[in-house]
Amino acid sequence: MYKHLYRRFTEANPTLLHFASHSHHYWPDVTREAQLQYWDDCAKYVDDKWSHIFSVKVPQAQRLISEVLNLTHSQQIVFAPNTHEFVFRLMSSLDWNQKVRILTTDSEFYSFDRQVSRLAELPHFEVVKIPTLPFDTFHERFEQAMESSDWNMIFLSHVFFNSGLVCDVERLVKDAPSDVPFVIDGYHSFMAVPLNLKPIQEKVFYVAGSYKYAQGGEGCCFLYVPPSTRHRPMYTGWFAELSKLSAIGNEVGYPTDAYQYAGSTMDFSGMYRLIATLETFKDQGLDITRIHTLIQNNQQLFLEELAKVNHPLVNRQNLIQDNLKNHGHFLTFNLPSTDATSQLVKEMKTRGLMTDSRGSRLRFGFGLYHDTTDIKAAVAKI
């Protein structure tokens, strides 16, 4: 129904069935014009480019994101080129002169997991990773961990990247200690799985970006910062000088708004693309609830077609799921081994079906550029 929005990508790959949209999502055609608009604005404004971006484009992006997440404080969103900047900036706001204890899961994306695992090699960093499986007991086990000890940071995903399982973050936030930074990684749920942040917007940090389901491509990530936050991250940059600073004596000053988490010079073309995509979705009546319903219908059709072929590996028995009515936009199958999974991914690619895997987990992603014909053709190539 919405394949026409992605004409340039589909025409560039006419024989490819792209079912890795959770990894590298096709971009709508409007992002090309947005990319050119960024160039034109750079030529038009030259030295005044930053003034235009921060006074016009940033507030525009903040408003669009806030509408999706139902946030009241749109000005509490700050941007960076990748989530790793935010991850490390958040960690650098903790007191490293004392023992640092971080509670998380065993299913976090590499931007966080690799960094926190490296820090855990230091004697004064302790990281506890709660297994997400079995998922039917995950929330209880995570709650018990929150209550069992004192933490300096709590970090977990809304949708886990290696399974598609959806975490009830609102439940966990309500049970979390109020004086500990609670960070939600929303990268695999933003513009895919509905989330109303308004009830918890005073307590949570939320990090996401445009590379996945927001469909704006790389280079534009964002962090929502609770309004009462007064942090002084060690990892800081000159963008933090753009707001009114608060300081005592000779200490380095920090803004009291979201820009306390700002970094430095970045390429804002990604923001232009993100704005264009979100505005197009609004014009098309594609709010996140409608998008989620469309993808759920495609996933159900995929599973119905899959049941007809009786594949020895890719079948309902190997599907990781909790509740497909509340699931991410990719389906994950846990196969017998990493080698078997990698081999199947390669074989499907030779047949024109693009998927991907994480270890022994095979993932099929679904986008608005898939129709019924694509779904049936994909199953036939497994």
Structure overview:
With 382 residues, this protein is α/β, with parallel strands linked by helices. It folds into two domains: 3-29 and 286-380, Alpha-Beta Complex (Aspartate Aminotransferase, domain 1); 31-281, Aspartate Aminotransferase, domain 2. 37% of the residues lie in helices and 15% in strands. The longest helix has 22 residues, at 288-309. The protein is globular. The two termini are 24 Å apart. The mean pLDDT is 96.
Helices and strands in order:
Elements: H1 7-12, E1 17-18, H2 30-45, H3 49-69, E2 77-80, H4 83-92, E3 100-105, H5 110-119, E4 125-130, H6 138-148, E5 153-157, H7 169-175, E6 182-185, E7 204-209, E8 221-224, E9 245-246, E10 254-255, H8 269-283, H9 288-309, E11 319-320, E12 330-334, H10 338-350, E13 353-354, E14 356-358, E15 361-365, H11 372-380
Helix pairs in contact: 2-8, 3-8, 9-11
